[in-house]
Write a structure and sequence with these properties.
This protein has a single domain, classed as TIM Barrel, CATH 3.20.20. The longest helix has 14 residues. The two termini are 27 Å apart. The strands form two sheets. It has an eight-stranded parallel beta sheet, sandwiched between helices. Strands 7-8 form a two-stranded antiparallel ribbon. The chain is an alpha/beta fold. It has nine helices and ten strands.
Length: 254
């Protein structure tokens, strides 16, 4: 089983070792490790790219002025996706064809709300119809502590597109209540209703929650959207290049 969205705890001496310990405790054997906007974990990710480990893939942040990002980086086996802010999607367009051709993942960030992000993604998909999109964090159901009124309409429109998957992560970030965050559970359930089980994945958003609860958050997400997602889905299969019985490649939704 894969953790589809994790960072690294840069406050510890060996961040990769700490992540692997958490994964082992939770029964997670693979992970997509995502660069933070601050870039504090980028040196660790660069080492992973230079010396890949079979159980990890990396998602790098796109910044229009960052010379470290260039199309050839998509050829690196360890790179599984690119994280892009809504406000930078237009600047990313010249690279979108390369990402589409690589069959790796665009991982958008909804800093200005899911409605605006959805509009930008729909526009992008019109020009790059085979682009793979991984929507993390339950599609950002809340922003600045307030419910996003257009969340359901937005995730429904995205779920109707081919090549779009979604993840249940950042549970603590969106909740107003302590663990087990029952106020967020309806969003995860609704997400499964609109996406179905195969395009969904579980992710931790480690270490951005209460210390020592990695396994608890993984298990909570599994409980909310159903144990059948615990087997590899389309995101894990494409990231790690293997197949398992009963898994179909990403295809247009009915």
């Amino acid at each position: 089983m894969m953790d589809a969205y994790t960072h690294l705890d840069m406050s510890v001496q060996n961040p990769m070792d700490a992540l692997e310990e958490c994964m082992e405790e939770a029964g997670i054997d693979r992970a997509l490790v995502v660069e933070t906007w601050s870039g504090d974990n980028r040196p660790s990710l660069d080492r992973l790219i230079a010396s890949p480990l079979p159980q990890f893939r990396v998602a790098l942040c796109f910044r229009p002025t960052d010379e470290r990002f260039y199309p050839a980086i998509l050829a690196e086996d360890a790179v599984g996706g690119i994280r892009v802010r809504t406000g930078d999607l237009k600047a990313f367009r010249p690279l979108a064809a390369a990402l589409e051709a690589s069959q790796k993942w665009l991982i958008p960030h909804a800093e200005v709300g899911i409605g605006k992000l959805t509009s930008e993604l729909l526009d992008l998909i019109r020009d790059f119809p085979q682009l793979r999109i991984f929507l993390p964090h339950m599609g950002w159901p809340r922003r600045d502590g307030q419910n996003e009124e257009d969340w359901y309409e937005s995730v429904s429109r995205l779920a109707a597109l081919p090549n779009v998957v979604a993840g249940v992560s950042a549970i603590a970030h969106f909740s107003h209540t302590p663990f087990p965050h029952e106020d967020v559970k309806p969003y995860a359930i609704r997400l499964r209703e609109v996406f179905g089980p195969e395009p969904l994945c579980v992710a931790s958003d480690y270490p951005l929650f209460e210390t020592g609860k990695y396994a608890d958050y993984v298990n909570l997400a599994i409980e909310w959207i159903g144990a059948d997602i615990a087997t590899a889905g389309v995101l894990e299969t494409t990231l790690f290049g293997d197949s398992q019985p009963g898994l179909a490649p990403i295809a247009a939704k009915e």
